[in-house]
Design brief:
It holds the Pfam family ADH_zinc_N. Homodimer. One of its GO terms (molecular function) is metal ion binding. The chain is α/β, with parallel strands linked by helices. It folds into two domains: 8-122 and 265-320, Medium-chain alcohol dehydrogenases, catalytic domain (Quinone Oxidoreductase, Chain A, domain 1, Alpha-Beta Complex); 137-259, 3-Layer(aba) Sandwich (Rossmann fold). The protein has helices spanning 66-69, 117-136, 153-164, 179-185, 197-202, 221-224, 248-251, 265-278, 292-300, 317-320, and strands at residues 8-12, 26-29, 32-40, 52-55, 58-60, 80-81, 83-86, 92-94, 100-104, 108-110, 145-149, 168-173, 190-193, 207-212, 227-235, 256-259, 284-288, 307-311. β15, α7 and β16 form a beta-alpha-beta unit. α2 (117-136) crosses α3 (153-164). The protein is globular and about 65 Å long. 40% of the residues are buried. Residues 125-126, 129, 150-155, 173-175, 178, 213-216, 236-238, 260-262, 302 line the site of NADPH dihydro-nicotinamide-adenine-dinucleotide phosphate (NDP).
Amino acid sequence: MGSLASERTVVGWAARDATGHLSPYTYTVRHEVVGEVVEVGPEVSKHRVGDVVGVGVIVGCCRECRPCKANVEQYCNKRIWSYNDVYTDGQPTQGGFASTMVVDQKFVVPIPAGLAPEQAAPLLCAGVTVYSPLKHFGLTAPGLRGGILGLGGVGHMGVKVAKAMGHHVTVISSSSRKRAEAMDELGADAYLVSSDAEAMAAAADSLDYIIDTVPVHHPLEPYLALLRLDGKHVLLGVVGEPLSFVAPMVMLGRKAVTGSFIGSVDETAELLRFCVDKGLTSQIEVVKMGYVNEALERLERNDVRYRFVVDVVGSNIEEAAGAPAN
Ligand SMILES: NC(=O)C1=CN([C@@H]2O[C@H](COP(=O)(O)OP(=O)(O)OC[C@H]3O[C@@H](n4cnc5c(N)ncnc54)[C@H](OP(=O)(O)O)[C@@H]3O)[C@@H](O)[C@H]2O)C=CC1
Ligand SMILES: O=C/C=C/c1ccc(O)c(O)c1
């Protein structure tokens, strides 16, 4: 490896010491990565070699715009994604699916003691994606009534974080398949099947917010009807088609439809401490790189509870990439 730019850090799993020991912590969920610091540039002050750290969705920003100055760098128009983007040196960013990751210390968060690294990985995206809007929109007070629409990777963290804040949580799902796990394992207080018109009508005007994680087009009006005065519908799912509702649906009740994008580095560090304090973890299935194709097929079938985490160090990455193993 060449000399390291001053504020950059190598988070890795390919590092071996003189005895052949591999860095032990190497978990990735597509772009969020938990690993061990294997090398630091001369001006890195946030962490040291050997620290267990995480990198989320963003690895670059302009540092000059209003969002950057307000420490919400995820809203910088020059943000650089940690995967499938182009870094300032013209090279593609590859998220966790690379032998090491070189990243500016600004985008590195410490994984606190008490949080298993594989558990921490989904918190760096799914976790902070729900934590950030709850904080930003003032939805943290105990006793609030929240709805989590779509019980997947993001939604399951929504249930856990909202419950840890002391909220009454209703899962709103497309089927009844996840009822038992939502109530018994995740601790939700109520469960609504969105196609059950009677149950939806009975729940009208009852929620302070809905965290909407549905990734496909869906009508908003049935969910806006669930909100009570000043209720907020927070769009998190990436839907590439227009979503619509008639204006009185929000006027009569001063309701808001808004959105939110992951969370800042500061919010991520705060969430990790929150999780340790509250004893919160993500619900995951750890797999090896060679299982990735099957994992993708299962994702399409809505058949994962609730995140796959790839154990990169435990995988033969060269073999998985099709290269001969050495
Ligand atoms: N805003 C942000 O910063 C972020 C946004 N995202 C986006 O959030 C969305 C959710 O992500 P994630 O939780 O990982 O996704 P998952 O696939 O894990 O979960 C999505 C859930 O939506 C529900 N759903 C309802 N209808 C459909 C459908 N037709 N197809 C698939 N799911 C459906 C399902 O829940 P059920 O079975 O309960 O109906 C499903 O489990 C994605 O669009 C993702 O890109 C992700 C991270 C950050
Ligand atoms: O357009 C916004 C996309 C957000 C996003 C962030 C992270 C992630 O894993 C996604 O699936 C979507």
